[in-house]
């Protein structure tokens, strides 16, 4: 809040695959904190902060990101 992200959460679908029904039908509750490497969580927080500021958002917003365990340009 106040322009700062709170945490990174993860959604673990009950059916094993995150499809339309898993998202809108039998949705699993978000699980904080996400079980991802610290560098990935830090990158997600930076991206969320940048998106919130760049779009001129105020109040509470949510940024949905997808994590894949592959090397990327921001990985260390």
- What is the CA-based Rg, rounded? 14 Å
Our measurement of the CA-to-CA distance between the termini, rounded to an integer number of angstroms, reads: 28 Å
Task: Quote the beta fraction.
Answer: under 5%
Q: Percentage of helical residues?
A: 25-40%
**Oligomeric status of the shown chains?**
single chain
Q: What is the overall pLDDT average?
A: 82
Unreliable spans? none
Number of helical runs?
2
Number of strands: 0
Give the biggest beta sheet.
none
Instruction: Tell me the overall shape.
Output: globular
| SSE string | HH
Structural class: mainly alpha
Sequence-ordered SSE layout with sheet pairings:
Layout lengths: L19 H6 L12 H17 L22
Structure description:
This protein has 76 residues and is mostly helical. The protein has a domain at 1-18 and 29-57. It has helices at 20-25, 38-54.
